[in-house]
Design goal:
The complex is a heterodimer. Chain A is an alpha+beta fold. Chain A is built from 24 helices and 20 strands. The longest helix of chain A is centred in the last third of the chain and has 43 residues, at 639-681. Chain A starts with a helix and ends with a helix. Chain B has helices spanning 56-63, 86-96, 112-120, 129-135, 151-164, 181-197, and strands at residues 12-25, 28-41, 45-49, 71-76, 79-80, 97-100, 169-173, 201-206, 217-222, 225-231. In chain B, the strands form 2 sheets. In chain B, strands 6-7-8-3-9-10 form a 6-stranded mixed sheet, sandwiched between helices. In chain B, helix 3 packs parallel to helix 5 and helix 4 (129-135) crosses helix 5. Chain B is globular. Classes of the chains: A alpha+beta, B alpha/beta. Chain A binds chain B through residues 2-4, 6-7, 10-11, 14, 296-297, 299-300, 302-308, 389-391, 394, 396, 779, 782-783, 785-786, and chain B through 61, 64, 66-67, 86-87, 90-91, 93-95, 97, 99, 101, 103-110, 114, 117-119, 121-123, 146-147, 151, 154, 161, 165. The complex binds adenosine-5'-triphosphate (ATP) and magnesium ion (MG).
Chain lengths: 786, 243
């Protein structure tokens, strides 16, 4: 090791606190990148592998009813690789146990003998159908897990008012229900009220009495034109009443996972970018300080014959070392973190297949993107070091000019302040660039904390809004078949019920110009208080005749505005109505009309599909049992129970947000620590002089604190604005027809964020203050001469 | 004591022709050096005297290639250094010049020995580091950091650092300023020895008129101009100096 390298090592060791603080920022950026990017890759390849192994459909067509041999005409369409016909219907299912709990089951048929050519399942426990073993079914894993169902258990399905027992043959996973969503509108659905089961095609035929199907699943040849195949398929299927075509991208589970993945992808880009730019800024600040404080040494090096290039490389090495320390440790941590995230997800979702590979390229990329910003940030100060004129640099530095700052000239009373205030104020304005760095550091710290905290607030607000402001009912009863409206009055007469209101939910196609969207309309009574409709403009609204209210997500999806006319198409009817307005709807996108209008769309009968109930508090535990006495009841959803379930599901997201928050706080600490410490160290001599002149340590600490607090406060406002802007931007990205979040940041969050950052500032100035207070005054004056 | 062979044209080492250096300080122009012309012979020992602010450091900086004149020409060993580019100047400073700076400028994170090695590593055939340290009387303090040395000891490290490169020209800016009488004499004797035995050319800046006695030639500066050049027919032995 030559002496220049030795000097580097010793200099690094002398500022190891600062070097580490900056390296930590790089570390966090690279770790975040590695974790999210590799996590993203692992999940994506595992999803894709599962889709491939289980032959997940490229698209699915729902029809009214078709004979099972209709498949034959579809198989021959050019480009179709495989097609299966199946029954897909929602039936009430009674779970084993004394309380006779009922849930809505999605019953899907699978071939009895050979496995399905499209949308197969993977048997995780037990076995597939094995010939003539009576009434058996397969249960989707997440549902089975929730209700602790095992192979051999018995459940019963209600078909034509008859309960038929089934033995569970196996527990399976399905590519269509990796995320067990009921529909695009019901992405977050609790296994408490909904589950998926599979029965054999033979059994279905026996039960229903005729071999018919209502859904076709297609796999197409690679490179085939899906849109034109869909068009041909639709033509073929016209006689059977095409209801809906669902492409792979629209399939609820696929779409939900895809959106979640996209979130990962965005995180893999946005957050590391933020961290690494802060890391670059911190590197720049630190290196600028090092170069500044070593001016005389640089002059000497140049004077005795070190070349410009040697000086440049020497100072760039400081940045390089920071980059290497941060990037290498970050890459390792990122890899480990990605394993944790991947395993957590795989466990949480219960993926059929996983495919996890060591991603050397991602590791290398992480290292590269960690080192790059340091080098870029280091080039400028290192270059300016190499340009220092030796004669100039070795003269003793000119004394800092002491003059009144502009502020003092504008407000003369400031000069009368005690020096505890005056000196910090002068310092802030005397070195504006240095002050600006601290303000920028605080700004970044605040904004990062605010973004993560804002996400958490928003999710909390969303759940609150959904369950307190929209779903104001205590329980919702869903019927397997439509029921007469007279049932409303009957249930209103029950002792347990304070109020019952009707719902008629029917599948519908919304059309506006070229745009169409498949969803449900909900028929509600105009005076419905149990289902809250909140206008996007603020205030409550109600359904009205001949008009429709839409979820706000549809404004964009359908490119429609209030006052426009929209077409509603159901299997029975077709209406054109005016859009009355838009309502806030965080989960899913629906249309809202009056019960009467929904009945028209349903074919003109006086029917309802469900009831919303307000239950007397003492009966909340028994209402499910009571409602199950209505034979058609498919499920009884208790709002409190669902909210609990959703809260649990959200825990995953919350865990990620907490990690982000911790990262944000660490970032804030690192950047504030760097700027504050640099700020203090740059004035060592000045402080030493003040001490020799008789200022006490406490007063000096006080002055530093005042200065930092003033800078901290100055960074708070832009930090809050930046954080709010970032969060808003992120939320805009996340808006889809499935989720539409409003950014909500509670006032307490602002206060807490400010508090946390101020606290961080106070903590991070301690090492600097301790260092200057330990200064050996005699040595300081000597250093001045060297 | 032998005199350097002056007068022989090919023995001339260093020529300054009409060299001026001025600094622009806002509106005022500070003339640090005004039309200095000087010819220095190989092996000469020159003492530059002058009051504070008279341009002594400026003159050494120009000769040492760490500053460039506002006008004029400087030639060293046939090389016109005022025409050299940055790279050429670096090589010149590395191989031709040993500089003892007025403010010693040691690297605080390197020990005394390492500070000397820091310079030794720049040249192909450096002197022996410990030997040089012994010459300045600092062998025992070789492993001390600058902050653990007295001002005079730091100055001696700076002297050792300049000598270790074994350069043909030694530029010394107040090398004895911080030293007590005895040590100062010791150092001056060492420089005379280097000058005589190793035939190095030495330019030494000082306030101290008495030191002029040991030089072949004394140059007196005032307000940036050479006001007197005095040949010293019989330079004194440093050991005989009094001040
Ligand atoms: N970089 C500079 N900018 C402005 N003025 C300068 C600069 N360097 C030197 N000077 C001025 O040039 C003049 C000569 O300076 P120089 O350092 O050469 O003096 P000196 O003879 O070495 O003095 P001392 O004995 O105090 O070291 C002085 O008036 C000084 O103020
Ligand atoms: Mg001087």
């Amino acid at each position: 090791m030559n002496k220049l390298q030795r000097k580097l090592v010793r200099d690094l060791a002398a500022s190891k606190g600062l070097i580490l603080a900056v390296a930590v920022v790089i570390f966090l950026g690279v770790a975040l990148f590695g974790a999210s990017f590799m996590g993203y890759q692992n999940l994506k390849s595992s999803y894709d592998y599962s889709y491939e192994r289980l032959r997940f459909a490229d698209f699915t067509v729902k029809v009214g009813e078709a004979p099972s041999n209709a498949v034959e005409e579809l198989e021959v369409i050019p480009g179709v690789a495989a097609v299966t016909g199946r029954v897909n219907t929602d039936i009430a299912l009674e779970l084993p146990g004394d309380d006779g709990k009922r849930v809505e089951a999605r019953v899907i048929s699978l071939p009895s003998g050979e496995r399905a050519a499209v949308n197969d399942v993977k048997v995780e426990e037990g076995s597939y159908f094995q010939g003539d073993d009576g009434n058996v079914l397969l249960v989707e894993k997440s549902f089975a897990k929730h209700h602790e169902l095992n192979p051999g258990d018995t459940v019963s399905l209600t078909v034509d008012d008859q309960e038929i027992s089934f033995r569970i043959a196996g527990i399976v996973t399905s590519p269509e229900y990796i995320w067990a969503a009921k529909s695009r509108q019901e992405i977050l659905v609790s296994p408490e009220t909904f589950g998926v089961v599979f029965v054999s095609q033979d059994t279905v035929s026996e039960l229903v009495g005729k071999p018919s199907i209502n859904e076709f699943c297609f796999l197409i040849d690679e490179g085939a034109d899906r849109d034109s195949i869909i068009a041909q398929v639709e033509d073929e299927l016209v006689p059977y009443g095409v209801m809906e075509v669902v492409t792979r991208e629209e399939q609820p589970s696929y779409a939900a996972l895809e959106q979640d993945l996209e979130g990962f992808g965005a995180m893999a880009a946005a957050f590391p970018l933020l961290f690494l730019s802060v890391g670059a800024l911190a590197t720049y600040i630190l290196l600028t300080r090092i170069v500044h404080s070593q001016r005389a040494q640089i002059g000497l090096m140049r004077a005795i014959g070190y070349s410009r290039r040697q000086v440049l490389v020497h100072y760039l090495s400081f940045a390089l070392v920071i980059g290497i320390i941060g990037a290498l440790s970050g890459a390792i941590a990122g890899y480990l973190l990605s394993e944790v995230i991947t395993n957590f997800y795989i466990g949480f979702l219960g993926l059929p297949f996983t495919k996890i590979e060591m991603q050397w390229l991602a590791v290398a990329e992480g290292i590269f993107i960690g080192i790059l910003p340091c080098i870029v940030a280091g080039i400028l100060p290192a270059y300016s070091a190499s340009r220092i004129s030796p004669a100039e640099a070795m003269r003793t530095p000119p004394p800092a000019t002491g003059r009144k700052i502009l502020l003092e000239r504008l407000f003369p009373f400031l000069t009368r302040l005690s020096s505890l205030w005056k000196i910090p104020l002068r310092n802030i304005f005397r070195n504006r660039r240095r002050s600006l760095y601290t303000v920028i550091g605080v700004t970044f710290g605040v904004s990062l904390i605010l973004v993560s905290a804002g996400m958490m607030d928003s999710v909390e607000a969303l759940i609150d809004f959904q369950f307190n402001d929209i779903q104001r009912y205590d329980a919702q009863v869903t019927f397997a078949q439509p029921q007469p409206i007279a049932l409303v009055d009957e249930v209103n007469g029950w002792d347990e019920v304070e109020e019952a209101q009707p719902v008629l939910q029917i599948p519908i196609r919304l059309e506006h110009g070229e745009k169409t969207y498949f969803t449900f309309v909900m028929g509600l009574s105009p005076d419905s208080e149990l289902y809250g409709l909140h206008s996007t403009g603020g205030g409550q609204v109600a359904v009205s005749d001949e008009r429709i209210l839409l979820s706000e997500g549809l404004r964009k999806t359908l490119d429609i505005d209030a006052g426009d006319v929209i077409t509603l198409r159901s299997s029975f009817a077709f209406q054109q109505v005016e859009v009355a307005g838009f309502v806030k709807q965080p989960l899913g996108s629906f249309g809202y009309v009056t019960v009467e209008q929904a009945q028209e769309l349903a074919g003109g009968q006086d029917i309802i599909s469900g009831l919303m109930l307000n239950v007397k508090p003492e009966y909340i535990d028994t209402i499910r049992e009571k409602a199950n006495q209505i034979p058609a009841t498919a499920s009884v959803e208790l709002t409190a129970e669902t909210k609990g379930e959703i809260d649990e599901m959200m825990d995953l997201g919350m865990a990620i947000m907490w990690v982000m928050l911790a990262f944000g706080a660490t970032l804030a600490f690192a950047i504030v620590f760097t700027t504050v410490t640099v700020n203090i160290l740059e004035r060592r001599r000045e402080i030493a002089t003040m001490r020799t002149l008789g200022e006490g340590k406490i007063r000096i600490a006080g002055m530093i604190t005042v200065e930092n607090l003033l800078l901290g406060l100055a960074g708070l406002i832009p930090g809050i604005l930046l954080g709010y802007g970032l969060a808003l931007y992120y939320f805009r990205l996340m808006q889809t027809d499935m989720f539409s979040f409003d950014l909500v940041i509670f006032p307490t969050t602002y206060v807490l964020t400010a508090g946390v950052v101020i606290f961080i500032m106070l903590i991070s100035q301690l090492p600097g203050i301790r260092q200057v207070n330990r200064l050996n005054l005699a040595q300081m004056t000597k250093e001045q001469a060297t | 004591m032998s005199k350097p062979a002056s007068g022989e044209k090919d023995n001339s080492l260093l020529q300054l022709e009409d060299v001026s250096r001025s600094y622009q300080m806002g509106q005022v122009e500070v003339k640090a050096l005004i039309r200095v012309t000087l010819d220095i012979v190989r092996g000469e020992f020159i003492v530059i005297l002058g009051p504070s602010g008279s341009g002594k450091t400026t003159l050494l900086n120009l000769i040492g290639g760490i500053d460039s004149p506002s006008s004029g020409k400087i030639t060293v060993d046939g090389i016109e250094i005022t025409a050299l580019d940055e790279k050429g100047l670096t090589g010149y400073r590395r191989n031709h010049i040993g500089f003892i700076f007025q403010f010693f400028n040691l690297i605080p994170t390197l020990t005394a020995k390492e500070n000397v090695e820091f310079a030794a590593e720049l040249v192909e055939k450096p002197g022996d580091v410990l030997e040089v340290l012994e010459l300045v009387g600092l062998k025992e303090r070789a492993n001390h950091y600058p902050s653990e040395l007295s001002g005079g000891e730091q100055q001696r490290v700076a002297i050792a650092r300049a000598m270790v490169k074994d350069p043909p020209i030694l530029l010394c800016d107040e090398p004895t300023g911080e030293l007590d009488f005895e040590t100062g004499k010791h150092i001056l004797a060492a420089m005379r020895r280097i000058n005589e035995v190793n035939r190095k050319t030495v330019l030494l800046v000082t306030h101290n008129t008495a030191i002029g006695d040991i030089a072949h030639r004394v140059i007196r500066l005032r307000s940036g101009e050479i006001v007197e050049v005095r040949q010293n027919p019989s330079p004194a032995d440093p050991q005989e100096l009094r001040w």
